[in-house]
Amino acid sequence: MEEKNFFDKVYEIVCMIPQGKVATYGQIARMCFAPRSSRAVGYALHVNPMPGIIPCHRVVNREGRLAPAFAFGGPEIQADLLEKEGVPVFRKEDGMLYVDLDNCLWNPQ
């Protein structure tokens, strides 16, 4: 059987995140058995070969913050995609957009 590369593993896991939920970069890295590779997860999503199919908009940072440089249109586009799936997004005093991880974090068990 062919071994998957890291990016393929990232994309496979991100495709498992259900609508209405989000995951963190670190969570995806841990699920790829590479717990110190959060930045590599972010890069893999930045070069997502199938936007709209691989739901990279469902991945946020460990604080629930949306990507300030979301690769496919900026944080407002990411917020719009999440809100259409039922994930509430709010703006904090720092001006950045966030989701509430207590309510929206995916727990694959």
From TrEMBL:
State one molecular function term (GO): methylated-DNA-[protein]-cysteine S-methyltransferase activity
UniProt xrefs under Pfam families:
DNA_binding_1 (PF01035)
Task: Please list the reactions this protein catalyses.
Answer: a 4-O-methyl-thymidine in DNA + L-cysteinyl-[protein] = a thymidine in DNA + S-methyl-L-cysteinyl-[protein]; a 6-O-methyl-2'-deoxyguanosine in DNA + L-cysteinyl-[protein] = S-methyl-L-cysteinyl-[protein] + a 2'-deoxyguanosine in DNA
Q: Tell me where on the tree of life, at the top rank, the source sits.
A: Bacteria
Q: Where is the Methylated-DNA-[protein]-cysteine S-methyltransferase DNA binding domain?
A: 5-87
Q: Which residues form a coiled coil?
A: none
Q: Does the keyword DNA repair apply?
A: yes
| Keyword hit for DNA repair | yes
Task: Please name the GO terms of the biological process aspect recorded for this protein, alphabetically.
Answer: DNA repair; methylation
- Which keywords fit this entry according to its UniProt record? DNA damage, DNA repair, Methyltransferase, Transferase
Q: What is this protein called?
A: MGMT family protein
Species assigned in the record: Candidatus Borkfalkia faecipullorum
